[in-house]
C-alpha cells in the first residue's frame, strides 16, 4: 500500500447517469479508483462502456441535461471536487486537473490563435502578465517539440497539421503543470509512427512533472507499453483492476480475457494469412435495460445461473487484482 | 497467383489548388502519384500508410468515384478508366466500397433496410417482398437481426454501422470490395467480429478485397499481400509474410517498430521517426521520405527512387543498398 | 384685437403635386400651395364662403365692364404691380396667359386641361399697357366666374411654362421659395405686394405628408397650424376634436361629386332599362350615412342648395327615378326592369365596377356593388392604377366606373360643357345629346339668373334621367386649424378657389 | 450532493413517452411554445377552411344601419364603417391571409428548392448564372420588386402571391444550395454514386431529405413574414384589393382613421396577424429544436 | 488576396450590369408612363399632347436605344433629369441618401446591439423561463407589421407627451438629430433585432455543443468568457450573414417607416418615383442602392475573414 500523500486522485463510488427519453442510462455505475503521483492508469473497455463519461465526470463537465453525477466522491489532492461550488471548480479545472479530449482535432477553438489558447489557460490560473504568459505558451510549444514555436503560437489551428494540433492540445493541457492529466484516446486515427511520437511525449512530460495520468484507449498495445495499472470497464461498471503485468499475465474477468484474445497478433510474428481472430460473441447490452445479474453474463462462456441473478462483487483475487466475477478463479483455466 | 481481377497502372490523382480571377491553378495536391498494383480473384491486398498519404484516393479512384488525372484501371481486363457514367453503371455491380467513415456514409434519414436494399432496387434486381427477403438475408449474413432493418443509422453502434455498410456493399454480390479503414474506430472485440466476417465471406464467395487500414496487425491478419504508401506513392509492396518478416523500406520498418505490443514486458515505446508528414502540395524533392528517414543520404534529396524488384516478389522504392532498401544494420 | 403681422403658417400637404404650374394641373394639390403666389384678374372674395357672381372682386384688374352687347369683357388693369422677379406687370402678360390657354400662343403648355373654358372667346386684345379685352363669339356672362377661379391666375409673359412648373413667378402675396418633391413647399412674404399691409404672414410652409394618420397626429401634436384644406374625413374630424378639443374644424361641401360613369356603347349598359334599373337601385342615403356619417348632399349635377347656387330643389329632385325616398319601391321597379331585360334571381348579371385604387373612389364602389346585389347584379371590383385609369376609360374598356368629378366653379357652364358636351375631353362617357347641347348654350347666354336657374334644373333633370353619369352624392370634408389661426374662410361651394391666404394671420 | 428525484428527471426527459401519442404529448409539454404555435396554426387553417360555416355574416355585406357598431352579442368584434361584421371578415380574412402566406411560401419555396438543389448539385454554369441572378434579386429591394410587380400586374390575390414569392426564391435557393454543396461531399452521397444511382435520383432521394430541416424552419419563418409583407403592401395600397378582407388591409386602412373612435377595427385584425406570425414562428423554433439531433434526449 | 479582390470586383460589375437591365426593363413592363400619369393628374388625355410629351422626354424611342442612352449617361456620370420635377436626377437623389443611410445604419446598430446579446443569453439559458421570455419578446418584434408599430409609437408619443418625433431636416442640437433618427430607426430595428436574436440563438446553440467549448470549460474559463469569447466568435458568421441580408432588405422596410414617420429619404422617394414612372429617378436610384447592397455583401464577406481565420480569399 502506498502512502496517502502519494495519491493524487481518489475516486469513490462514482455514479453518473443520463436521463434520456429511452430511460435511465447508467453510464458510470459505482466506479472507484485511485491515481498516484507520476502513475499512469489506463482505462479500457468496449466502445460506449462509459470511459469518456468517467473522465468528464472528474472534471464535472458531463453535459447537463441530460447527464448528472448522482453519487460518489472525486477527491483531488484532498478536496472533494463534487462538493465545490462552480467558481472553485473553475479554479481547479485546467490548473490541477487537465484533459486531452478524445477528438483533439475539433477540440481547439478554430478562431483563436494557438498561442492565445494556451495563454488563456495559463492566465486563468496564474497571475501573470500577457507577456509572461505568452513566453510560457511558447515554452510549452517548444516542450512538445513543435518547431519554430514562436511563429506557430501566432497561427490558427487550421494552419497546423493534425499531429501538431494534438501536440498543441497537450501543451495546453500541461501548461499549468496539473497534478492530474486525463488523456482520452489521444492517438486514435493516427498512424503508428505518429502515435509513438505523441505517446513518448506525454510520458516524458509526465515523468518530468510527476503528473498522475489517466489514459483511456482501445489499443491494448498502448496500454501494455505505457500504463502501470489498468482498469477494465464493461457496461458502466469497473469489472477488473490490476497492475498491467498482472492483467496481461492472467486476466481474471472473462470479458478482459475475451478482449485479450481478440487482439490481432503482432505482425512480425508471422501469422498465417486469413487467420480468424477470436471474438466475443454477442453484443453489448443496452445500458438502459441491463440484466439483473452480471451484464456480461449473456455473452460469457462461463456464465452460471448465479451470474444471471446476482451481480458479482468486486473482489480482491490477490495482490490488489480486483475482478467482479463469480468464477474469476476459474477464468484462467477454462479459456 | 490467380488471374488479375483489378489492374491499376500508373494511377495519378492531382487535386488542383486554384486561385485568382480566372481561378487559375496555382498549385497541385499530389494525392496519388503513379500507383500501380494488381489484385487477383479471391485475393486481399492490404494498403497501409500515414494519414493523408492517398489511400482513400486510390480506393475511390478504383471505383471511379474520383476521376483519376492519369493512369489506367482495368476491371477483369476491361479498361474502365474512360467509361461514361452510364457505361459504368453495369460495372458498379461488380465493385463496391466500404467507406472509411461508416456513420457519415449512411444517410441519416433512411432506415438500415432501405440503405441495404437500395442498390438492389437501383439495379432492378428485386422489389417488394423479394427485396425484403434479400435484405433480411444480408442482415443475417453480417450478423444483424432482420428486425433491425427498421432502425435508423443513429440507433446502431459503431460496429453495427460498419456491418450495415458491408451489407450494402455485399448486396450486389460484387467481385471486388474496397474496404477503406473499416475497423479503425472499433475496439478490439468488435474489430475482431468485422474481420472475421470479411474473411468468412471471402472464403465463401471468393471476393477480392482492397483492404486499407492503419493497424498493421489487422492488415497482417486479413491480407495476402501488403502495399505501403507514403505521400502518394507505393514505397513497398510484397507478400504479407515477406513484408513483415523482411521489411525493406525505412518507413515500413518504422511502422512495424512503432506498433505497440500488448505485452508489458516487451520493448517500451520509442519513436523511430520524428517530424511531421510533409505536405502533398509541395512534396519534398527526391525521395519523399528523406525528411524523416534515419538513413537519408545526400542522393535521397535529389533522386527519386523507383519501385524495383528486390527479389521474392518484393518490390521497394529506396536508394539504400542499390535499391534493395535493406539497411546495413537495423539499430 | 386687429390682425397681427408675422409668423409662418405651417400646414401639411396631402401629396406631392406633379409640378407647380396651376394651369397645367387639375387638382387642388396644386392650387392650394401655389395660389398664394399669383393673382387673377378677378377673384371670388376670399372671406365670403359662398362663391357667386356677386362675390367677385377685382384683383389685378381694377374694374371690368361688359360692352358690345355683352360680347366683350374689358378690364382696366392695376398699375405699378411687379412680378416677383421685379419685372412690371402689364396687359401683355394677360394676353400671353390667355392666348396660351387657348392654344394660340407660340409657347405651349405641356398640358392644358381647361382649354374648353375659353371656347367662346374669340381673341384677347390689349389697349395700352393697362387695358385688356376678351372678345367673345357670343355672350357668356359666366366667363367672369371662370376668371375668378383659383384655376385662373395670370402668368408672366417673360417666364417659360417649363420654368413655371419648377419655379413659379407671380404677382401674389407670397413668393415661391422652394419645392422639394415629396418633402416640402415653401413660400415667403412678398414685401412688394401691391395690396398695402398684406399679407400678414411672413411665409407659408407645406410639409408633404401623404400618410393621413401621421399628418393628423402631427396636427394634433401641434406641429401644424392647419390641416390640408378639405382633407379631413368626417370620422377624422371627430378624432381630431377628441384629441385636440381647442382645434377649430369646419365641414363643408367640396363641390366634388361622386358619380357612376356608364359605358353605354357596349353590353349590358347599352340597354336603357338596365341603366335605369341601376339608377333606381341606388340608396343614396346609405352612401352618405356610411361615408359621411350623414353629412353629405344628394343632388344632380349641380351642387344642391343651400350651399350650391344651381342645384334642383328637393321636390324636383325626388321626381327623378332613383331619387325617390322609398328605396324599396325603387328597387322593386328596378328588379322588374331587370327581369324585362332577362335577368332574375336565377340569372344574375355579372358586372365589373372599375375604379381607381384610392379610398375615396374605392369605398363608394364597395357600397355600390353591395347595393347592386339587390337587383340581380353581381358586381366585381376592378381597381385600376392611376396611370391606367384614363387610358382605360378612353378605350371604353369598362362597364361602369366609379368616378369623382370636381367642379372648380359653381357654375353650370363649367360643369355642363366640361362633362357633358359632345367632344369634351373630360366627357369620359362620350355622352352626346345634341338637344341638350343646344340647351347648354341657351342657359349660358341667359343673363337673368332666375330664368337661367330654371333652364339649368331642366337640363340637370334630363341628364339624370338619361343615366348618363348618375350622380350618387356630393361629398363634404373637414378642415381643421388651431384656434390662433385667424381669417380662415372655407368656401362652401368650391374647394379650388379660396387659398390666396393674404388675409390669414396668426394670433400668437 | 443534492438529492435527485429520478422519476422527475426521467419524466422530464420523456423516458416513458417513447411512441405514438405519449411521445407527441411529451414533445408538446417540452416545447410548450412550439405546441402553442402549432395549435394557433391549426386553428387558423381550420378557420380558413371552414370560414363559411364559422362566419356569422357575409363578410362583404354592407349595412349602413349598423356601421361602426361596438363589439356586442350580435357582432362579436363589432362592425366596420361599412357596417360589415368584423368577426366574419377576420374569419374570411384567414383564407386570404393564409392563402398569401402559404401560397407565396409554397411557391417561392418550391422554386427555390428546385433551383437551389439544381444549382448546388450541378454546379458549373447553371450555378454561376443562378448566383448572379440571385445577387441581382437580392440587390433589388424586396418591397420595390413587389411594388413594381403589383403595379405591373394589378393588385389581385395571385399577383400579390407571385410578387411576394419571387424575392423568396433566392433566399430559399441560397440556403438549399449551401446545404446541397455540403451534402454533395458527404460520404453517403458518394455511397449512392458507388451503387450506380443516377444523379437526379441521388439529388431527390439523398440530398433533398437532408435539407428538409433548415427548409422547414425557413419556411415557417417566411410564412409569417409574408403575411406581414402583404400587410405592408396593403398599407402602401398595393395589397389584395377590396372587397376581399385581408387582415393586412383591414388593419392598414382602419389604422388611419379609426384607432381612437373604433379601436376594435384595429385591434382584432392586429391580433390576428400577430397571432398567425407568432404561431408559425414558435412552431418553426420548436421544429428546429426537435429536428436537431443533438437536442434529442 | 489582390486577385480575389479583382475577381470580386468583376463579379460585382456583372451583377450591377444585370440589375441595370432588370430594373430598366421591369419598369417598362409596368403599364403606363409618366405622360399617362401627368394626364391623370390633369384629369384628361389629349392624344396629340401625349405624343408631343413622349417625344420631348424621349420615351418614344426603341427600348434598346433608351437603355444605351441611360447606361451610357450613367457611366459618364450624367444621370439625366427627373421627369416630374424636371431637375437633375442627381440633385434629387443625392440629398436624400444620407438620411436613409443614417436611418439604416442606426437600425442595424440597434438590431445588432440588442439582438446579439439577447440571442446569446437566450441560447445559454436555453429552456429556462428567461429563454422563453426573450423569445416571446423577439417574436413580438417579428409579428408586428412595421407600419403598425410606427403608428403605435407616434400615437403613444402624442398621447403621452403631446409631441411627436416628426422629421426635422435641420436639427439644431445633437440630441434633436438623434431623436429625429433614433425613434424610426428603433421601429425598423426592432424587427431585425428580433431576427438577429433568433439567428444568434440558433447559431450559439450549435456552437455551444462543440468540443472546443468543452475545452474552454476544461481550462477553467468563466461562463462569460466561454459564452462571449469562445462561443460567440464562432457563432457570429451566420449572424453577420443575416445582418448583411437584412441590410439589403432594409430598404424595403424603410419604405414603410419613412412613410409613417414622414422622413424624406430615398426609400419613400423611390416608391413615389415608381408611382410616377419617373424612370431617371428610379433607374439611377436603384443602381445606387444596388451598389450599396453589393458593397455591403462584399463587406460581409470581408468580415467573414476577420471573424474566421480559416477563410482566406485565395479561393
Ligand atoms: N450527451 C449524452 N447523452 C446521452 N447519452 C450519452 C451522452 N454522452 C454519452 N452518452 C452515453 O453514455 C455511454 C458512455 O459513453 P462514453 O462516451 O463514456 O463511451 P466510451 O467508453 O468513451 O466509448 P468510446 O470508446 O466509443 O469513446 C454511451 O453509451 C453513450 O451513448
Ligand atoms: N477533394 C479533394 N480536394 C483536394 N485535396 C484532396 C481532396 N481529397 C483528398 N485530398 C488530399 O489528398 C491527399 C490524400 O487524401 P486521402 O483521403 O486519399 O488520404 P488517406 O490516405 O485516405 O488518409 P486517411 O488515413 O486520413 O484517411 C490528402 O492530402 C488530402 O488532403
Ligand atoms: Mg470515449
Ligand atoms: Mg482515408
TrEMBL record, chain A:
Subcellular location: Cell inner membrane
SUPFAM superfamilies xref list: P-loop containing nucleoside triphosphate hydrolases
Key words of the record: ATP-binding, Cell membrane, Membrane, Nucleotide-binding, Transport
Chief localization: membrane
Residue ranges of every copy of the ABC transporter domain listed in the record: 9-260
Record bears the keyword Transport: yes
GO molecular function annotation: ATP binding; ATP hydrolysis activity
Organism domain of life: Bacteria
Any one biological process term the GO annotation gives: transmembrane transport
SMART domains in the cross-refs: AAA (SM00382)
Keyword Metal-binding: no
Membrane topology, record value: Peripheral membrane protein
GO CC term, one of those recorded: plasma membrane
Family: Belongs to the ABC transporter superfamily.
Physiological role: Involved in beta-(1-->2)glucan export. Transmembrane domains (TMD) form a pore in the inner membrane and the ATP-binding domain (NBD) is responsible for energy generation.
PANTHER family linked to this entry: DIPEPTIDE TRANSPORT ATP-BINDING PROTEIN DPPD, OLIGOPEPTIDE TRANSPORT ATP-BINDING PROTEIN APPD
The name this protein goes by in its record: Peptide ABC transporter ATP-binding protein
Automatic annotation (TrEMBL), chain B:
Family annotation (SUPFAM superfamilies): P-loop containing nucleoside triphosphate hydrolases
Cellular component GO terms, alphabetical: plasma membrane
Alphabetically ordered keywords of this record: ATP-binding, Nucleotide-binding, Transport
Main location: membrane
Domain ABC transporter: from-to ranges: 6-256
Pfam families membership: ABC_tran, oligo_HPY
Bilayer topology annotation: Peripheral membrane protein
One record GO biological process: peptide transport
InterPro entries in alphabetical order: AAA+_ATPase, ABC_transp_ATP-bind, ABC_transporter-like_ATP-bd, ABC_transporter-like_CS, Oligopep_ABC_C, P-loop_NTPase
GO molecular function, one term: ATP hydrolysis activity
Free-text function comment from the UniProt entry: Involved in beta-(1-->2)glucan export. Transmembrane domains (TMD) form a pore in the inner membrane and the ATP-binding domain (NBD) is responsible for energy generation.
Protein family: Belongs to the ABC transporter superfamily.
Protein name: Peptide ABC transporter substrate-binding protein
TrEMBL record, chain D:
Compartments, as annotated in UniProt: Cell membrane
UniProt xrefs under Gene3D superfamilies: MetI-like
CDD domains: TM_PBP2 (cd06261)
Record membrane topology: Multi-pass membrane protein
Primary location recorded for the protein, binned into one broad class: membrane
Annotated GO biological process: peptide transport; protein transport; transmembrane transport
Pfam families listed in its UniProt record: BPD_transp_1, OppC_N
Keywords linked to the UniProt accession: Cell membrane, Membrane, Peptide transport, Protein transport, Transmembrane, Transmembrane helix, Transport
Gene Ontology cellular component list: plasma membrane
Transmembrane segments annotated in the record for this chain: 32-51, 96-124, 136-154, 160-176, 215-241, 261-284
Taxonomic superkingdom: Bacteria
Span of domain ABC transmembrane type-1: 94-284
Family, as annotated: Belongs to the binding-protein-dependent transport system permease family.
PANTHER family with a match to the protein in the record: D,D-DIPEPTIDE TRANSPORT SYSTEM PERMEASE PROTEIN DDPC-RELATED, OLIGOPEPTIDE TRANSPORT SYSTEM PERMEASE PROTEIN APPC
The protein's name: ABC transporter permease
Organism: Bradyrhizobium neotropicale
UniProtKB/TrEMBL annotation, chain E:
SUPFAM superfamilies: MetI-like
Membrane topology of this protein: Multi-pass membrane protein
Subcellular locations according to the entry: Cell membrane
Keywords tagged on the record: Cell membrane, Membrane, Transmembrane, Transmembrane helix, Transport
Main location: membrane
One GO location term (cellular component): plasma membrane
Protein name (record): Peptide ABC transporter permease
InterPro entries: BPD_transp_1_N, MetI-like, MetI-like_sf
Pfam families reported for this sequence: BPD_transp_1, BPD_transp_1_N
ABC transmembrane type-1 domain segment(s): 97-304
Amino acid at each position: 500500500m502506498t502512502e496517502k500523500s502519494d495519491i493524487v486522485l481518489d475516486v469513490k463510488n462514482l455514479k453518473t447517469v443520463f436521463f434520456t427519453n429511452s430511460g435511465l442510462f447508467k453510464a458510470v455505475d459505482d466506479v472507484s479508483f485511485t491515481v498516484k503521483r507520476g502513475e499512469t492508469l489506463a482505462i479500457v473497455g468496449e466502445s460506449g462502456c462509459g470511459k469518456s463519461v468517467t473522465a468528464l465526470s472528474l472534471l464535472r463537465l458531463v453535459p447537463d441535461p441530460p447527464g448528472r453525477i448522482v453519487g460518489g466522491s472525486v477527491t483531488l489532492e484532498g478536496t472533494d471536487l463534487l462538493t465545490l461550488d462552480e467558481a472553485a471548480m473553475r479554479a481547479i479545472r485546467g490548473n490541477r486537473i487537465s484533459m486531452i479530449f478524445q477528438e483533439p482535432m475539433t477540440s481547439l477553438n478554430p478562431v483563436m490563435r494557438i498561442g492565445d489558447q494556451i495563454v488563456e489557460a495559463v492566465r486563468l490560473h496564474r497571475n501573470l502578465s500577457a507577456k509572461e504568459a505568452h513566453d510560457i505558451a511558447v515554452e510549452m510549444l517548444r516542450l512538445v517539440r513543435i518547431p519554430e514555436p514562436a511563429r506557430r503560437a501566432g497561427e490558427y489551428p487550421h494552419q497546423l497539421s493534425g499531429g501538431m494540433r494534438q501536440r498543441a492540445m497537450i501543451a495546453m493541457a500541461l501548461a499549468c503543470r496539473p497534478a492530474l492529466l486525463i488523456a482520452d484516446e489521444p492517438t486514435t486515427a493516427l498512424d503508428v509512427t505518429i502515435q509513438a511520437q505523441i505517446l513518448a511525449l506525454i510520458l516524458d512530460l509526465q515523468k518530468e512533472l510527476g503528473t498522475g495520468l489517466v489514459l483511456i484507449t482501445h489499443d491494448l498495445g498502448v496500454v501494455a507499453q505505457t500504463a502501470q495499472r489498468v482498469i477494465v470497464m464493461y457496461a458502466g461498471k469497473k469489472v477488473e483492476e490490476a497492475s498491467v503485468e498482472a492483467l496481461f499475465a492472467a486476466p481474471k474477468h472473462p470479458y478482459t480475457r475475451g478482449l485479450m484474445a481478440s487482439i490481432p497478433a503482432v505482425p512480425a510474428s508471422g501469422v498465417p494469412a486469413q487467420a480468424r481472430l477470436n471474438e466475443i460473441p454477442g453484443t453489448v447490452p443496452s445500458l438502459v435495460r441491463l440484466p439483473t445479474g452480471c451484464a456480461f453474463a449473456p455473452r460469457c462462456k462461463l456464465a452460471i445461473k448465479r451470474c444471471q441473478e446476482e451481480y458479482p462483487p468486486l473482489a480482491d483475487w490477490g495482490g490488489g487484482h480486483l475482478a467482479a466475477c463469480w468464477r474469476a478463479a476459474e477464468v484462467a483455466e477454462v479459456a | 497467383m490467380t488471374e488479375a481481377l483489378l489492374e491499376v497502372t500508373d494511377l495519378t490523382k492531382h487535386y488542383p489548388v486554384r486561385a485568382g480571377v480566372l481561378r487559375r491553378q496555382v498549385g497541385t495536391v499530389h494525392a496519388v502519384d503513379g500507383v500501380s498494383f494488381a489484385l487477383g480473384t479471391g485475393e486481399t491486398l492490404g494498403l497501409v500508410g500515414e494519414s493523408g498519404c492517398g489511400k482513400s484516393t486510390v480506393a475511390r479512384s478504383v471505383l471511379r468515384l474520383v476521376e483519376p488525372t492519369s493512369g489506367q484501371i482495368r476491371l477483369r481486363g476491361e479498361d474502365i478508366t474512360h467509361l461514361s457514367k452510364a457505361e459504368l453503371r453495369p460495372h458498379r455491380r461488380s465493385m463496391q466500397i466500404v467507406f472509411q467513415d461508416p456513420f457519415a456514409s449512411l444517410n441519416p434519414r433512411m432506415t438500415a433496410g432501405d440503405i441495404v436494399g437500395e442498390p438492389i432496387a437501383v439495379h432492378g434486381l428485386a422489389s417488394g417482398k423479394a427485396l425484403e427477403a434479400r435484405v433480411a438475408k444480408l442482415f443475417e449474413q453480417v450478423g444483424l437481426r432482420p428486425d433491425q432493418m427498421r432502425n435508423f443509422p443513429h440507433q446502431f453502434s459503431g460496429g453495427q454501422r460498419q456491418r450495415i455498410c458491408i451489407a450494402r456493399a455485399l448486396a450486389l454480390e460484387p467481385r471486388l470490395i474496397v474496404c477503406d479503414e473499416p475497423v479503425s474506430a472499433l475496439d478490439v472485440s468488435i474489430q475482431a467480429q468485422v474481420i472475421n466476417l470479411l474473411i468468412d465471406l471471402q472464403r465463401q464467395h471468393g471476393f477480392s478485397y482492397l483492404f486499407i487500414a492503419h493497424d498493421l496487425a489487422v492488415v497482417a491478419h486479413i491480407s495476402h499481400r501488403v502495399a505501403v504508401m507514403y505521400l502518394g506513392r507505393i514505397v513497398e509492396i510484397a507478400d504479407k509474410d515477406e513484408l513483415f518478416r523482411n521489411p525493406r523500406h525505412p518507413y515500413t520498418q518504422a511502422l512495424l517498430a512503432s506498433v505497440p505490443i500488448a505485452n508489458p514486458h516487451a520493448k517500451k515505446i520509442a519513436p523511430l521517426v520524428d517530424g511531421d508528414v510533409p505536405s502533398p502540395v509541395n512534396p519534398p524533392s527526391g525521395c519523399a521520405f528523406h525528411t524523416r528517414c534515419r538513413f537519408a543520404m545526400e542522393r535521397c534529396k535529389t533522386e527519386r527512387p523507383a519501385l524495383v524488384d528486390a527479389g521474392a516478389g518484393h518490390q521497394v522504392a529506396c536508394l539504400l543498398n542499390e535499391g534493395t532498401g535493406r539497411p546495413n544494420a537495423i539499430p | 384685437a386687429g390682425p397681427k403681422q408675422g409668423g409662418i403658417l405651417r400646414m401639411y400637404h396631402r401629396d406631392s403635386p406633379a409640378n407647380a404650374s396651376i394651369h397645367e394641373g387639375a387638382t387642388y394639390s396644386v392650387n392650394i400651395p401655389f395660389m398664394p403666389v399669383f393673382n387673377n384678374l378677378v377673384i371670388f372674395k376670399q372671406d365670403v364662403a359662398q362663391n357667386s357672381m356677386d362675390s367677385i372682386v377685382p384683383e389685378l384688374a381694377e374694374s371690368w365692364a361688359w360692352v358690345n352687347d355683352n360680347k366683350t369683357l374689358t378690364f382696366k388693369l392695376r398699375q405699378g404691380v411687379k412680378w416677383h422677379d421685379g419685372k412690371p406687370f402689364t396687359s401683355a402678360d394677360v394676353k400671353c396667359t390667355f392666348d396660351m390657354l387657348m392654344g394660340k400662343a407660340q409657347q405651349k403648355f405641356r398640358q392644358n386641361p381647361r382649354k374648353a373654358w375659353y371656347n367662346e372667346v374669340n381673341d384677347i386684345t390689349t389697349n395700352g399697357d393697362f387695358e385688356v379685352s376678351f372678345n367673345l363669339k357670343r355672350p357668356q356672362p359666366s366667363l367672369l366666374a371662370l376668371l375668378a377661379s383659383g384655376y385662373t391666375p395670370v402668368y408672366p409673359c417673360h417666364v417659360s411654362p417649363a420654368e413655371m412648373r419648377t419655379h413659379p413667378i407671380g404677382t401674389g402675396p407670397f413668393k415661391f421659395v422652394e419645392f422639394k418633391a415629396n418633402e416640402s413647399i415653401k413660400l415667403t412674404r412678398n414685401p412688394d405686394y401691391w395690396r398695402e399691409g398684406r399679407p400678414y404672414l411672413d411665409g407659408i410652409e407645406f410639409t408633404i405628408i401623404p400618410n393621413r394618420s401621421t399628418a393628423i397626429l402631427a396636427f394634433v401634436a401641434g406641429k401644424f397650424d392647419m390641416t390640408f384644406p378639405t382633407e379631413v374625413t368626417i370620422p377624422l374630424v371627430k378624432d381630431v376634436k377628441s384629441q385636440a378639443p381647442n382645434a377649430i374644424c369646419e365641414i363643408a361641401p367640396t363641390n366634388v361629386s361622386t358619380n357612376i360613369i356608364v359605358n353605354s356603347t357596349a353590353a349590358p349598359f347599352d340597354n336603357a332599362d338596365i341603366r335605369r334599373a341601376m339608377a333606381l337601385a341606388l340608396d343614396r342615403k346609405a352612401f352618405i350615412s356610411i361615408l359621411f356619417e350623414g353629412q353629405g348632399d344628394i343632388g344632380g349635377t349641380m351642387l344642391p342648395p343651400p350651399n350650391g347656387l344651381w342645384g334642383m330643389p328637393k321636390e324636383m329632385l325626388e321626381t327623378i327615378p332613383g331619387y325617390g325616398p322609398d328605396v324599396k319601391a325603387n328597387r322593386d321597379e328596378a328588379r322588374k326592369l331587370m327581369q324585362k331585360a332577362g335577368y332574375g334571381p336565377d340569372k344574375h348579371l355579372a358586372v365589373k365596377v372599375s375604379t381607381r385604387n384610392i379610398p375615396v373612389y374605392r369605398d363608394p364602389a364597395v357600397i355600390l356593388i353591395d347595393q347592386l346585389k339587390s337587383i340581380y347584379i353581381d358586381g366585381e371590383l376592378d381597381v385600376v392604377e392611376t396611370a391606367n385609369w384614363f387610358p382605360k376609360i378612353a378605350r371604353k374598356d369598362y362597364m361602369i366606373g366609379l368616378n369623382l368629378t370636381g367642379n372648380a366653379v359653381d357654375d353650370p357652364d363649367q360643369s355642363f360643357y366640361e362633362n357633358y358636351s359632345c367632344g369634351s375631353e373630360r366627357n369620359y362617357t362620350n355622352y352626346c345629346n345634341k338637344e341638350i347641347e343646344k340647351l347648354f348654350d341657351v342657359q349660358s347666354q341667359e343673363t337673368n339668373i332666375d330664368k337661367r336657374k330654371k333652364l339649368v334644373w331642366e337640363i340637370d333633370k334630363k341628364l339624370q334621367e338619361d343615366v348618363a353619369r348618375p350622380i350618387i352624392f356630393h361629398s363634404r370634408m373637414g378642415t381643421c386649424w388651431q384656434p390662433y389661426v385667424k381669417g380662415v374662410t372655407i368656401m362652401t361651394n368650391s374647394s379650388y378657389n379660396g387659398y390666396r391666404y393674404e388675409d390669414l394671420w396668426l394670433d400668437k | 450532493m443534492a438529492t435527485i428525484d429520478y422519476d422527475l428527471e426521467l419524466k422530464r426527459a420523456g423516458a416513458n413517452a417513447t411512441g405514438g401519442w405519449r411521445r407527441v404529448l411529451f414533445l408538446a409539454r417540452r416545447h410548450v411554445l412550439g405546441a402553442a404555435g402549432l395549435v394557433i396554426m391549426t386553428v387558423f387553417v381550420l378557420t380558413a377552411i371552414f370560414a363559411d360555416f364559422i362566419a356569422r355574416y357575409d363578410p362583404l355585406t354592407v349595412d349602413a344601419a349598423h356601421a361602426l357598431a361596438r363589439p356586442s352579442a350580435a357582432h362579436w368584434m363589432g362592425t366596420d364603417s361599412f357596417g360589415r361584421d368584423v368577426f366574419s371578415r377576420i374569419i374570411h380574412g384567414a383564407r386570404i391571409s393564409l392563402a398569401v402566406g402559404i401560397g407565396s411560401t409554397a411557391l417561392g419555396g418550391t422554386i427555390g428548392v428546385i433551383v437551389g438543389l439544381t444549382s448546388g448539385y450541378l454546379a458549373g454554369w447553371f450555378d454561376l448564372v443562378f448566383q448572379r441572378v440571385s445577387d441581382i434579386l437580392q440587390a433589388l429591394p424586396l418591397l420595390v420588386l413587389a411594388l413594381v410587380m403589383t403595379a405591373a400586374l394589378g393588385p389581385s390575390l395571385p399577383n400579390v402571391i407571385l410578387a411576394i414569392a419571387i424575392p423568396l426564391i433566392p433566399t430559399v435557393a441560397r440556403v438549399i444550395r449551401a446545404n446541397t454543396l455540403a451534402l454533395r461531399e458527404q460520404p453517403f452521397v458518394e455511397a449512392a454514386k458507388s451503387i450506380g444511382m443516377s444523379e437526379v435520383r441521388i439529388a431527390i432521394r439523398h440530398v433533398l431529405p437532408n435539407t428538409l430541416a433548415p427548409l422547414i424552419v425557413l419556411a415557417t419563418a417566411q410564412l409569417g413574414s409574408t403575411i406581414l409583407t402583404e400587410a405592408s403592401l396593403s398599407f402602401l395600397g398595393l395589397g389584395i384589393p377590396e372587397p376581399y378582407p385581408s387582415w393586412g388591409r383591414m388593419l392598414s386602412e382602419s389604422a388611419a382613421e379609426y384607432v381612437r373612435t373604433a379601436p376594435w377595427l384595429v385591434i382584432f385584425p392586429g391580433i390576428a396577424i400577430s397571432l398567425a406570425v407568432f404561431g408559425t414562428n414558435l412552431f418553426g423554433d420548436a421544429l428546429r429544436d426537435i429536428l436537431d439531433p443533438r437536442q434529442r434526449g | 488576396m489582390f486577385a480575389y479582390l479583382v475577381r470580386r470586383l468583376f463579379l460585382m460589375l456583372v451583377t450591377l450590369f444585370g440589375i441595370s437591365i432588370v430594373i430598366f426593363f421591369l419598369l417598362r413592363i409596368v403599364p403606363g408612363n409618366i405622360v399617362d400619369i401627368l394626364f391623370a393628374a390633369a384629369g384628361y388625355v389629349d392624344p396629340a399632347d401625349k405624343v408631343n410629351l413622349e417625344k420631348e422626354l424621349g420615351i418614344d424611342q426603341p427600348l434598346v436605344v433608351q437603355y444605351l442612352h441611360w447606361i451610357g449617361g450613367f457611366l459618364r456620370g450624367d444621370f439625366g433629369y427627373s421627369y416630374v420635377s424636371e431637375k437633375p436626377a442627381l440633385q434629387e437623389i443625392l440629398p436624400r441618401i444620407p438620411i436613409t443611410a443614417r436611418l439604416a445604419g442606426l437600425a442595424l446598430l440597434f438590431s445588432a446591439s440588442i439582438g446579439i446579446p439577447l440571442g446569446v443569453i437566450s441560447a445559454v439559458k436555453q429552456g429556462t423561463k428567461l429563454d422563453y421570455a426573450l423569445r416571446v419578446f423577439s417574436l413580438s418584434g417579428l409579428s408586428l407589421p412595421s407600419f403598425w408599430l410606427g403608428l403605435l409609437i407616434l400615437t403613444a408619443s402624442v398621447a403621452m407627451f403631446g409631441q411627436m418625433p416628426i422629421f426635422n431636416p435641420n436639427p439644431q442640437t445633437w440630441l434633436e438629430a438623434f431623436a429625429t433618427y433614433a425613434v424610426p430607426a428603433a421601429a425598423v430595428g426592432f424587427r431585425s433585432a428580433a431576427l438577429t436574436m433568433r439567428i444568434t440563438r440558433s447559431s450559439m446553440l450549435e456552437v455551444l455543443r462543440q468540443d472546443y467549448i468543452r475545452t474552454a470549460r476544461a481550462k477553467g474559463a468563466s461562463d462569460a468568457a466561454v459564452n462571449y469569447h469562445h462561443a460567440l466568435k464562432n457563432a457570429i458568421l451566420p449572424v453577420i450573414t443575416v445582418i448583411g441580408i437584412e441590410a439589403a432588405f432594409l430598404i424595403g422596410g424603410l419604405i414603410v417607416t419613412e412613410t409613417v414617420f414622414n422622413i424624406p429619404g430615398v426609400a419613400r422617394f423611390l416608391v413615389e418615383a415608381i408611382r410616377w414612372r419617373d424612370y431617371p429617378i428610379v433607374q439611377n436610384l436603384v443602381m445606387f442602392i444596388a451598389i450599396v447592397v453589393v458593397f455591403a455583401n462584399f463587406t460581409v464577406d470581408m468580415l467573414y475573414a476577420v471573424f474566421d481565420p480559416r477563410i482566406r480569399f485565395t479561393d
